[in-house]
Each structure stands twice: as structure tokens, then as C-alpha cells.
């Protein structure tokens, strides 16, 4: 059974991911690494891609392109990315506190209302692939990039990876997508809106707080789920 502190750490990560996505999406893939060095120094990186929802097949969107795409203040948006990465590092500390093997990298996959995490334990300090090459390999594996779309350098990296691939030990687990609290807050906001004629200034402030607190992508998702529940009732 997953420890409560670990479950809460994963829910915090989900919340912060959702907060960074301003449109409807179907699936998402995130990579993060945390590398320990001497003198308690840590380095690492984080990047992720999502697929917008739509009838036509969409290309994966690099989340760091969101500010330009949606005219969002870059400094504020990148501060959200920093907060997310700090939450990932806190998750790693929680894993250590719960006597779990310390991972060096993790991949988060969110698809079909499921949240899955793959932990990797490779020693990234001594990896035969550098940072840029690991990104190429990750995108090829998780974003299903056609081999024919790769340039010569990328093909060389993938060929070397597949030729010398050693099955890396990974740990995989799944959790339900974190929607319960968002659903609750959304219903609360709807009740306030229904009685708007009698709403005080405090209630109006509360509505604004909920609207700002709940990520737009999750409001859209929860509304769809609630509508399905009504149809099934």
C-alpha cells in the first residue's frame, strides 16, 4: 500500500502539472532527473509534452512553448515549472524517507484518466549518453517519433542506443488521476453561482479564489465527467 505521504506528494505533482496546461489535452509525458553529487549538490532537468485534444491528430506540444502560444507571462509561467520540479524533488525525498530505492529519473505518463510513473535507477553520472542524447532517446521512446523523421545525428544516437540497449530496471506504479478535490471545488463554485442573487462580497471572493485555484484544464475535464454522470443517472 502506498504511504500517505507519497500519495500526497504525487497528488501535489499532478496539481502543479494541471496548473501549467491552459487548454484541453488528451495525454501527457513528463521526464525529470535528479542527480546527486558530492557536497550535497544536486543537478537535473525536467521537460514535458502534451497532446491537445481534437478530432485531428495533433503534434506534441513542448510545455515551455506555452507562454508564446497563449501569450502568458514567461517569468510567472516558468516559476510554476520551478515549483513543479521542487515538488518532484520532494517526492524523491519522500521515497527515501519511506525506505524506497532512490531513483535518478522518472517519467510521468497521464493517459485516459490514469497517472503512471516509471522510476529509473541508471547512474546518470556515468551514463554513456550525455544530456542531449538522453533527451533524443526519451522523445523517440515516449513521443513515438518515426525513425524516418529523425536527422542524421538523432539516428546515430538511436542506433547506438538500440544496439547497446541494456534492459534498465524500472519500477512502475499507477494511481487514479487526481480529480476528486477539483470536482468538489467545481461543484461548490456551481452552487455559489446558482444562488448568485444572494451572494455576499465574501462569497464572490470565494468564487474568484476557486476559479483561480482550479486549473482550467481540470475544470474542463471535471465538467465532462460530471455531465457523463448526469447522463448515466
How does this structure look, described?
The chain folds into two domains: 4-177, BH3703-like domains (Murine Class I Major Histocompatibility Complex, H2-DB, Chain A, domain 1), CATH 3.30.500.20; 182-232, no CATH class. Helix 4 (131-142) crosses helix 5 and helix 6 (180-194) packs antiparallel against helix 7. The model has no long low-confidence stretch (mean pLDDT 81). The protein contains eight helices and six strands, in the order H-E-E-E-H-H-E-E-H-H-E-H-H-H. It has helices at 4-19, 66-70, 74-97, 131-142, 152-163, 180-194, 201-213, 216-232; strands at residues 25-36, 42-52, 61-62, 105-111, 114-120, 170-176. It has 233 residues and is an alpha+beta fold. Strand 4 and strand 5 form a beta hairpin. The two termini are 32 Å apart. The longest helix has 24 residues, at 74-97. It is 49% helix and 20% strand. A six-stranded antiparallel sheet has the order 3-2-1-4-5-6, covered by helices on one side. It is globular and about 55 Å long.
Helix share, percent: 40-55%
- CATH arch. level architecture of the largest domain: 2-Layer Sandwich
Biggest sheet, in brief?
6 strands, antiparallel
Average pLDDT, all residues: 81
Cα(first) to Cα(last) distance is: 32 Å
* H-E order: HEEEHHEEHHEHHH
The total of helices stands at 8
Radius of gyration from CA coordinates? 20 Å
> What name does CATH use for the topology of the largest domain?
Murine Class I Major Histocompatibility Complex, H2-DB, Chain A, domain 1
Taken from the alpha-carbon principal axes, the silhouette is: globular
Briefly note the structural class of the backbone: alpha+beta
CATH superfamily of the largest domain, by name, is: BH3703-like domains
Number of domains: 2
Please mark out the parts with pLDDT under 50 across 5 or more consecutive residues, or reply none. Answer: none
